[in-house]
Amino acid sequence: MSSKIYVGNLPYSVTDASLKSNFAEFGSVSSAKVMMDRETGMSKGFGFVEMASAEVAQAAISALHGMSVDGRSIVVSLARPREASKDSGGYSAGGYTATKRADVGYGTGGFGGGRY
């Protein structure tokens, strides 16, 4: 089973290839991706590495967490699953949903709307 690793506080000079080579010292790397800003094309300063097994991933985390790369102390940990946003309102796959607040909206007023 593969393990996904979060790598944060990366210098902007780090590329996918250099990230992969740093982790390849500890075992087989399935993928390495530095997250890039869509508009500027520059690194966001973090990325993800997927390794072949949990044991290899843990060895890499232990060895590389806190290591200095171009003067920056990198953060290396197991990646957590992405959390879904909770009831934020707005457009989504399910359509438009308004906020669930009872004290605002059109529900309780007479002609011309409700309380704001």
TrEMBL record:
Keywords: RNA-binding. Coiled coil: none annotated. It comes from the Bacteria. Residues 3-81 form the RRM domain. This is RNA recognition motif domain-containing protein. It comes from Pelomonas parva. SMART domains: RRM. PANTHER family: HETEROGENEOUS NUCLEAR RIBONUCLEOPROTEIN 87F-RELATED. Pfam families: RRM_1.
